[in-house]
Amino acid sequence: MNKSIIYSLLIGLVLFVACDPVESRDEMTGAITAEQLNVTATPLVVDGVRSNKIILENHSPVLSHWDYGMGATSKAYDEVLVSAVGDMVVTFTGRNGDGTTITKELPINVEAIVFEVVGMDKFIGDGSKTWVWDEWTNERDFGGPGVYPYGIGGSVADKSPAWWGLLHGSFDESDATMTFALDGGAVFTKTLGDGTKQKGTFSFNMNKKIEDWSQGILTLKGATIPHPQSMNGGGGDATEFYILVLEDDQLVLSTVTGNEILEDVTPWSHEVNIWMFRPEGYTAFDVTEQMATLTGGSERTWTWTGSDGWGNNGVDANGPGWWIVKTPDIDGQAPGEGEGASMVFSNDGKMVKHKNTGESIEGTFSIGSPLSEKWGVGTLKTKDVTVLCGVAGNNQDQGYEDGRMPVYQYGIIELTDSKMVLGFNNPSGNEGWYWIFTPKE
């Protein structure tokens, strides 16, 4: 055979063989429509109940991207967990071989939380966990010394109110609590101070993080946290929050001004609202001994020592020294709270101040970690009532015309079965005020 004919046949054969893969690739890289997608999102049924484990399957010739609310996955087949019950939507986005994308929304319904979700145990503890305002962590002097569990920070970096805040007890719903529970679904309950309950659901997404600031997003439906308002900027009640801290013993939530949740937040770009909570009954400090001494194991009455009762001294001193008011003269400083007055502390956290006029003032108290190493016995906090003559003088710069500022937080300097010494440092930091009491026989 002529060599030129052989070469022609070989070239033709090569061209023919090369065409088939090209045609095949054209089929593989073609585009399908959303209506042609063969994708499913199905809750796994356990004991006849649609669980929170979702089976994702893509049987179409496209690349996969699933958004299931709590996160995303790019696998053609995957099993993922959600943290809420009820109706929700899984969004599938497919990428065709020609680069175009198509989207399909897949409605699902989850009846029960059967499978544990990472982070759920911190919210609910052993199944139900009640959170209260954090009265111990954010010690500040703005607006007067005290603890500020609610307020604003200056940037996406702050994890506690750092610019301004409100003292616990000075804002709406400061006596409210919130409970996260696993009861078939992820149940959220806010309980107001009068016992009224507002119920809803919660879910969270620990995949939506902002580096070095937030750990995820908490979403509430039907009810929301205590005092959910933005300090500045309005925006109505927040129902979605950045999770700044989520630990067994602390929960810190945030939004940016106006109660917004933004996809892209950079440091110093926004003022932030911050809410700080602790588990009910939490203490960072073992106060068993202090409570037993203060209450006598049940109820104990305290009164003035009969000599040096109240006065000022240097900061972090051990008692009054510069100016001392003896017990018989205290009525001149706080009418009805001098000689013959008393205060009763009960082990259920109740406190009653009895004036020598016959008037009584009821409130509550708690004991927590020390304010300083020198006052290392602990911290006494009172609500709705102060200790006898519970004022600190020379505080005109704090807005008190006569300089006398009520005190609701005291460093415990000494606490024995025969003596209690309390202290408080003025916001200016140039003097301390001190009280000395003894149990009433």
Please explain how this structure is put together.
With 441 residues, the chain is mostly beta strands. It folds into 3 domains: 34-110, Sandwich (Immunoglobulin-like); 123-279, no CATH class; 288-439, Lipocalin (Beta Barrel), CATH 2.40.128. It is 9% helix and 41% strand. The protein has helices at residues 3-28, 120-124, 288-295; strands at 39-46, 49-58, 66-67, 72-73, 77-81, 86-95, 101-110, 128-133, 139-140, 146-147, 150-153, 164-166, 177-183, 185-191, 197-205, 216-221, 240-247, 250-256, 272-279, 299-304, 308-313, 323-326, 342-346, 350-354, 360-368, 378-383, 391-392, 405-406, 409-415, 420-425, 432-439. It has an 8-stranded antiparallel beta barrel with strand order 8-13-14-15-16-17-18-19. Strands 20-23-24-25-26-29-30-31 form an 8-stranded antiparallel β-barrel. Strand 17 and strand 18 form a beta hairpin. The protein is elongated, with a radius of gyration of 32 Å. Residues 1-28 have low confidence and may be disordered.
